[in-house]
Design brief:
Blueprint lengths: L6 H14 E7 L3 E14 L2 E15 L6 E2 L2 H11 L3 H10 L1 H14 L3 E7 L2 E7 L7 H14 L2 E8 L4 E15 L2 E11 L7 E9 L4 E11 L16 E2 L4 H21 L2 H16 L6 H12 L3 H14 L4 H9 L8 H15 L3 H8 L3
Helix pairs in contact: 2-4, 3-4, 5-6, 8-9, 9-10, 10-11
């Protein structure tokens, strides 16, 4: 598990973002994409010329003042929306920005539809459906933080990335042993994306005290960002800024009240005992085949990289626990050293997939030779 940032820093950043966000709804024919370049002066060795150090795309919306450079996620979503294959998109982005902009504009205008553009800090961060339902970080935190304070939880990790917000907490009063001396604490992971990169979810988790690994179990709450179609009030003429109407606000209030009650209900002894039994069962499932082959099969099942496969094998051997529980912890141990926070959380979820394998599938994996 990666530590991330403090809860205070998370809250401060979400508060800052709340004032720096703007959403617009527009017909795609009213969107114009252009290339932009960043240059620096190169001096020395008889040279005095500009050198391109980076290039990007910028979005203009008819009727909206200002231009919005693309984020990484915006590039991904525009590639999907226009149907431009990613290898070709990335090649044009690196070597032919004008050609990429021409391609994007052609398909945005040839296949027109109403879309929402989400911006942050004057950058285009998402191109989502006009049915996208913003269930944003500030409202979510206002709903769950009072419940978490009442439950006296420990914040193990929190972070807000370009794609998602994460909050991982455990309760000191909800802990037990998988084996003698192997203590875990029970808690929750709350995750949300404001830009269409995943549902708002609350998942149960176990935090292993001996190694600080987290295992994220199945989602107890999962709410997709899909709602009513935004009314076409004059769209087709120019982009308009989006504000939630009273009906949408009422729907959101009702959902966040349910979310609060669900979080409160999950932090209970009954949930702890059910999940402990699952972990204890995993500790009894032995690896009987060649550990190298077992890890190779695990790599394929979990779509791990070659480097991650090697690290899983090393952690499995160092841990000396040839069981499903040991293999799961070898996978979640990767989260400490993951390249970014999003991947760290994904690896904690992948560890749970080892624990939750049906008996027949586990036997095939454990007997790999």
């Amino acid at each position: 598990m990666q530590t991330g940032i403090s809860l205070q820093a998370l809250a401060a950043e979400i508060e800052r973002q709340e004032t720096a966000k703007r959403d617009f709804v527009a017909d795609t024919r009213k969107m114009i994409v252009s290339p932009i370049e960043a240059r620096e002066r190169q001096l020395g060795a008889g040279k005095d010329e500009d050198r391109v150090v980076s290039q990007n795309l910028v979005l203009d919306l008819d009727g909206v003042e200002g231009r919005f450079p693309f984020t990484t996620t915006m590039h991904e979503q525009v590639a999907t929306k226009t149907g431009i294959p990613r290898p070709y998109y990335d090649r044009m982005r690196e070597h032919a920005g004008d050609l990429l902009a021409t391609n994007i504009n052609h398909w945005l205008h040839r296949q027109p539809e109403q879309r929402m553009v989400r911006t942050l800090d004057a950058r285009a961060r998402a191109l989502v459906s006009d049915k996208f339902r913003p269930l944003d970080h500030p409202e979510m935190l206002r709903a769950v933080l009072p419940v978490l304070r009442e439950a006296d939880v420990v914040v193990r990790s929190s972070q807000v990335t370009e794609r998602r917000l994460y909050l991982q907490v455990t309760s000191r009063r909800l802990e037990g042993e998988v084996r003698r001396g192997d203590v875990v604490q029970f808690g929750l992971v709350i995750a949300n994306s404001e830009i269409g990169m995943g549902a708002l979810s609350v998942s149960e988790m176990m935090y292993r005290l001996v190694c600080l690994n987290g295992v994220i179990l199945g989602s107890a709450v999962r709410k997709s960002h899909v709602g009513r179609k935004i009314a076409d009030d004059g769209l087709g003429h120019e982009a308009v800024e989006f504000y939630a109407d009273e009906t949408r606000k009422a729907d959101d209030r009702a959902f966040f009240l349910k979310l609060r009650d669900t979080v409160k209900g999950l932090l209970s002894d009954a949930r702890l005992q059910a999940q402990l039994e699952k972990l204890r069962g995993a500790a009894e499932r032995r690896i009987t085949g060649d550990p190298v082959k077992v890890v190779e099969v695990t790599q394929k099942r979990l779509s791990l990289t070659d480097g991650e496969r090697g690290d899983v094998l090393r952690h499995l051997i160092e841990g000396g626990d040839l069981s499903a529980w040991g293999l799961a912890n070898a996978v979640t141990r990767l989260a400490h050293d993951a390249s970014d926070y999003d991947r760290s959380v994904e690896l904690e979820r992948l560890g749970a997939r080892v624990i939750e394998l049906p008996q027949t599938e586990w036997r095939q994996l454990a007997e790999a030779a």
